[in-house]
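Sharing a chain and its predicted structure for anyone who wants a worked example. Both blocks are below, sequence first, tokens second.
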Amino acid sequence: MKSKKRIVLAYSGGLDTSIILKWLQENYNAEVICYTADIGQEINRKKIINNAKKFGVKKIIIKDLKNLFVKDYVFPMIRGNAIYEGVYLLGTSIARPLIAKDQIRVAKKFKAYAVSHGATGKGNDQVRFELGYYYFGPKIKVVAPWRIWKLKSRSDLINYAKKHKIPIPKDKKGAPPFSVDDNLFHTSTEGKILENPKNSAPEFIFQRTTSPEKAPNKPTFISINFKNGDPVGINGKKLNPENILTKLNFIAGKNGIGRVDLVENRFLGIKSRGVYETPGGTLLIHAHRAIESVTLDKETMHKKDLIMPRYAELIYNGYWYSKERFKLQKIIDQKITKSNAYSMKKVSFEENKTFNKSNVERFINYHKKKLRY
């Protein structure tokens, strides 16, 4: 007997991907393999396994990628000081390339002919997933349900779930949930009342940060230890990347650090509103920038500042595996021979001979002439 074809589904065990699982089974003569990448999101392994088994799934794979995610994806991005449109630290964007890569690994291992994801037809994630799929498995077919099925809205999904007895989660107000994405680096919340920019984000949506009003009145002092541009420990204690970010998330979160509420420009041309929490990441990017302010010379710092918007945009658009991103990463990671470009003697208000003030007049006169160019 000829075995069924196989599809590897990026599966969370939640509403959307449970609906997709059932829909794939109804519309494709294929065995569905459920794949979950554990990148630090709130995860219930028992629930994922049980939900998949309810639909007769035999192969359920949950892969722990947390340390790899922070070390090989978050940290390189921090080294580039990547911020999209002035405020967004790219927490969702940076997770998709790793998930796509490992999902293709699973597809190749089980000789699957296709992969599938739960990204909506209007969002950025479909692009990010599929560029990653193409880079590692160009011959593997992609099934994107949101672009091809007849379920056109969240209401249609709810009705489909009810029809097939798929559990519908409720948020803290007893209504169908916001669209939430989380990983070790951040949490994003979208949809519902947030779609109207006039509405303030309700406090109950925040999951990992205390409101500034309720944060401690006393300051918290910590030292983040860096080596070659990457964090290696906290307060002198060496930790692995996963544990560094976990600890910083806790410290920053309880101090009300890391909230962002913005309307952003999606890659597909739509403007959308997202509320993001990136507590540990906010500490890391500010700490890294502070180190560079002391160690990098002016030309190198400004060169990095010049390329950063493009670097951030490439990540946002799903171009993590592009030649251009690799090229910019090499520029970002180039070794700097001078460990300290800051001179207390030169900057001191006390008179000293380390700075020749007689050259200043010539410097000003030169730039006066440039005004006329």
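Comments welcome. The chain has a mean pLDDT of 92.
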